[in-house]
Amino acid sequence: MDNPFTLFENWFEAAKKVELNDPDAMCLATVNASGQPSTRMVLLKGHDERGFVFYTNSHSQKARDIAQNPNVSLCFHWKSLRKQIRILGTCTPVSAEEVDAYFASRGRESRLGAWASDQSALLDTRETFLAKIADITRQFEGKDVPRPPHWWGYRVVPTQIEFWEDRPHRLHDRTIFTRKTDEESWKTHKLYP
Questions:
Q1: Residue 52 confidence (pLDDT)
Q2: For a designed S-S bond to 42, which of 54, 164, 167, 184 qualifies (C-beta 3.0 to 4.6 A apart)?
Q3: Is the pLDDT of residue 179 over 80?
Q4: Is the pLDDT of residue 51 over 90?
Q5: pTM of the model as a whole
Q6: In sequence order, what DSSP letters do the residues of 84-107 get, joined into one string?
Q7: Beta strands in 6-150 (DSSP E)
Q8: Catalytic residue numbers?
Q9: Is residue 137 part of a domain?
Q10: Per-residue pLDDT tens for 62-78?
Q11: Residue 91 half-sphere exposure toward CB, CA atoms < 13 A
Q12: 156, part of any domain
């Protein structure tokens, strides 16, 4: 197969049929200004030949890391399929239209939560957060909940995608697709397990 996006779609569709929770969960790794890596799980909210999209608060640690160093990695691990996909690439903001469309598709409580959360900031007690949610809920009572200006989306534009399949006796199958820019064609290679 010459197109990693087609292979990704095939594996992702299979994962959606067998993974009990969050087949769209992916580990996002960033690096902060001091060179310290940081990982966390985020949810894939869109993908196509342009890349892999997730959304977050632009004041969050991950967004601050990305602003300083846009080179990131993603990892999907589907234990039930015994497969994983590792992606290296550059993170870029998605268009405001994409962000608005996705935000509008979220449930009301999630949209209110986006206004109430100072993601990654220190919080004295859970009660403080719940009080802030109650206050935001009152502010938007009977009104549409617009997207907060600090809530944004990011696309990981891949330069490398590796597909790993578990095989007996640790004789795994690994296929890697690489390119230097998104204008280049993909090069495909096998890797030793």
A1: 98
A2: 54
A3: yes
A4: yes
A5: 0.93
A6: EEEEEEEEEEPPHHHHHHHHHHS-
A7: 25-31, 37-43, 46-48, 51-57, 71-78, 83-93
A8: 170
A9: no
A10: 999 999 999 999 999 99
A11: 25
A12: yes
